[in-house]
Structures are given as C-alpha cells and as structure tokens.
Write a structure and sequence with these properties.
The complex is a heterodimer of chains A (about 300) and B (about 170). Chain A is an alpha+beta fold. Chain A is built from 4 helices and 13 strands. Classes of the chains: A alpha+beta (about 300), B mainly alpha (about 170).
C-alpha cells in the first residue's frame, strides 16, 4: 500500500516536472490547443452576455431610440465626409512616401476581433481576442480600438490572441507628444481601484515642453508600434525626486475596462501566411478606406 | 465524480474565470473558480480525482494566462494537498467550515503561484503586495467556494454520481 502511494507521488511529480520543463515550442502548442478548445465556449458566453445587455439596453432606451437614430444618421454623414478627406490625404501621403522612398510603416490591413476573455489568473492586464494566426494575427502587433492604441499581441494561437494591455507594467510604448514633438517611453502603472487605467511617461527632460492636455501618440521608434496611433492625453506633469526629469501621467484614449471589439494591425506578411490557411474574408478591413476587403466606398 | 463531469466543471470554471474581470480591490485577485473545483475534488473525492483535477485545472489556468505551463498546477496541488490534510479535521458539508478552508487554500495557492512567478521574474511584486493579494483571494474564496460546492453537489445529486464519494 505504502509502495503504491510512493509510486503515485513519483508519477505526479514527474507529470508536473514534465509540464514545467516542456520546450518552449511544445508549451506554446499545448497552451494554444487548450485556448483554441475553450475559445468557442468563451465566444458563446460573451455572445450570451451581449444579448442580455442588448435586451436590457433596449428595454431601458426605448424612449431614446428616435433621438439616437437621428444622432447616428448625422454621425454617418459626418464620418463619410471625414473618410473622403482621409482618402485624399492617404493618396497624397502615399505619393510623398513613394517619392521619398520610405518603407510603409503603417500596416494597411486591420483584423477586426471580438474580445472574449481576460487573464484567468489576474496577474497580468490582458484580454483575449477571438482571432488568431489563422486570421492573420501575429505576435507583437499593435492592437487598437476606434479611440486609440490599447496594447500589443503577446501570445497567439490558431484561433485566439492574447493582448497585453497598455495598463500592464510590462507593456512599454515609444511615444511622442503631438504638440511639442517630445519623445519618451510610456509604461503601464497597473489598475488601481476606482481609477481609470493610466500610463506613465518617465524621464522627460526638465526643460521639455509638456503640459496637461497634450495629445500623446506612438512615435514609431523601435518598430513595434506604427507611428501616430493615439495613446491618450497628458493628465498631470510632476518633477521627479532628483529634480532633473519630469514624469507625465497619461490618461488613455481607449477605455480598457469596456473593451468589446479591437483591431489588430496586421502586416502583409501575416495575412499572406494566414491566406495559406484560408483567411475569413469578412474580418479584414482596409485601413485606408475602412471598408471590408474587396468592397469599395 | 466521473472524469467527464470533472472536465465539464474545469472547462466551465476556466471559461468563467477568464470572462470575469479580476476583483479591483486587495491586489486584484482573479475569482478562484478553478481552485473551487480542485478543492471540491480534494475534499469529497478520491485522491486520483483530486490530482487529475489539480493538474488539469492548472493546465487550463496557465493556458488562459501568460503564466508558463505547470505553475498553476503546482499551486493548485499545494492548496489541494492542504485541503486533503485538513479533510479529516472538519465536516466538509458545512458552509462555514468550507468557507474557512477555501480561504486558507486560496491564500496558499496565490502565495505559491506568486513565489513561483516572482522567482522567475515574470511579475514584480513586493512581499506586501503578495500578502495583500493572498488576503484578497482568501476573501473571494471564502464567499465563492461554498456556493460552488453547493452547485457541484447539486449537479452530482441530479446525475446520481454522489456515491462516488471517497
């Protein structure tokens, strides 16, 4: 009896040791398989919650529907105008880039994804997207919403991708102040109870022109994030203890607490790799026109 | 408890745990649903079910987070072993005792996982942060584990697998 217990204990120990020492590639495959297996459940649960929320919203907002409809119609007209202008600008931009011989830094495709989960342990600020490598999502790509940058992809399986959010202390972004052109690195400060997630821009020179309200965008340095993506606005500027540098607290443009949809900035290479395994065509948006791939304005 | 039911609870637990945002207070711990499933197996079932539950729950938890594979299994095995040691000392069906044991085991699991993650540099935590988070997960488990136990027991009675008790 005692022998059997020892054998069982040794077997358990071996299983755990094997799991801990799995080669990186094998570990990724196992994690990816589990994530892919669970993703339909997560998507289903998310869909159910959304339906429920819609019903509650519908019941609550019956009276506001007409007003909302009018506001949306106005917004469509406005956005169409904006889009036409953006197309013109993109064309001019393209021409200038070609002339100057710049490589295109901004990826021209956005993969539309739905947020289906969060980090199960709570140790990291992450969300899970319902699209993975099969849809053209790769590791280390910028993830954004219509409001601005939210983070980067860190773990990608066939059908899911984990996004490390800007609020996580492990997420660092090279940024620039749009007004004064000052450069810096923004890093997450975690989430504090009752406060919106913020990021901090450290080691800004004492003489640098930084003011509350300044718009912060990605600088494109480091090559990880495309240039010019909105990150947020400076909320507060303080001198650090040494008195040599300033630290800016940045309020994020996107609301990380209410993420439902996100876009992954995919490169042509990512999409080409995915096409080999058949990309769902309805999820790829053209960043220049905002329309589904293959459709026009 | 048949293995299939165990798998059902693990998948459901993992899905729910990943869907619920972490509690914003006391170090932002996640809702310990998978831990509850492991504790249920540890307190009510044979050892082999508990071990299978701990390893599989750890696999699911690690797959749904950025933690390396095996870390959560270690922490859940530690917490479950504590529950097994305490098993004979209390009446498992009483909500208050279940609540206390759940809290103690949740603190153990969180502490073990925090030590593992910190030792390899995956998270930057001070001792105070760790203790605060352990307390947070204990509070969550104290509330959640008795509810989860009642739910799992209810399902077992309906399915007629209650006689599997060790």
């Amino acid at each position: 009896m005692k022998d059997r217990r020892w054998i069982a204990l040794c077997a358990i120990g071996l299983v755990v040791l094997a799991m801990l020492n799995l080669p990186d590639a094998a570990s990724r495959r196992v994690k990816g398989a589990v994530r892919d297996g669970i993703s339909p459940l997560q998507a289903g649960l998310r869909g159910g919650v959304r339906e429920l929320r819609e019903i509650v919203r519908y019941v609550r907002g019956l009276g506001d529907l007409a007003l909302e409809n009018r506001a949306l119609s106005e917004e469509i007209v406005y956005l169409r105008g904006e889009m036409r202008m953006a197309q013109e600008l993109a064309r001019d931009n393209q021409m200038l880039r070609d002339q100057l011989g710049f490589a295109r830094r901004f990826p021209n495709k956005l993969v539309s994804c739905e947020v289906i989960g969060r980090d199960s342990t709570g140790w990291w600020q992450t969300v899970r997207l319902d699209k993975g490598a099969a849809a053209g999502v790769a590791e280390g790509r910028a993830v954004l919403t219509t409001d601005g940058l939210i983070g980067r992809t860190v773990a990608v399986s066939g059908r899911t991708a984990d996004v490390l959010l800007l609020a996580d202390p492990a997420c660092k972004v090279a940024v620039r102040l749009k007004r004064s052109g000052e450069f810096g690195v923004a890093e997450g400060t975690g989430v504090k109870p009752g406060e919106a997630p913020t990021v901090r821009m450290d080691y800004v020179l004492k003489t640098a022109d930084v003011q509350p309200g300044d718009e912060v965008v990605t600088s494109g340095l480091g090559g990880l994030f495309p240039k010019g993506l909105p990150v947020g606005r400076v909320a507060e500027v303080v001198l650090d203890a040494s008195g040599l540098y300033q630290t800016a607290r940045i309020e994020l443009a996107a609301d990380l607490g209410k993420l439902e949809y996100a876009f992954v900035a995919a490169t042509e290479k990512d999409l080409a790799a995915a096409r080999a395994e058949s990309v769902p065509a309805d999820v790829v948006l053209d960043a220049e026109t905002g329309f589904l791939e293959g459709e026009g304005p | 408890m048949k293995l299939l039911i165990l798998l059902f609870w693990l998948l459901l637990g993992g899905t729910l745990q990943a869907a619920l945002p972490a509690w914003r207070y006391m170090g932002q711990p996640a809702f310990p649903i998978l831990l509850g499933v492991v504790l249920y197996a540890a307190l009510n079932k044979k050892a082999r079910y508990f071990v299978a539950a701990a390893i599989l729950a750890g696999l699911v938890e690690d797959a749904l987070s950025l933690a390396p594979l095996g870390y959560s299994s270690c922490s859940l095995l530690a917490a479950g072993t504590l529950a097994v040691l305490l098993r004979k000392e209390f009446f498992a069906d009483r909500a208050t005792t279940t609540s206390w044991v759940g809290a103690l085991c949740a603190a153990t699991a969180t502490g073990t996982l925090a030590l593992l993650l910190r030792s390899k540099g995956f998270v930057a935590l001070t001792g105070r942060d760790m203790l605060w988070r352990m307390a947070g997960s204990a509070v969550l488990a104290a509330v959640l584990v008795p509810l989860l136990f009642a739910l799992m027991r209810g399902l077992e009675r309906r399915l007629g697998t209650w006689e599997d008790r060790a």
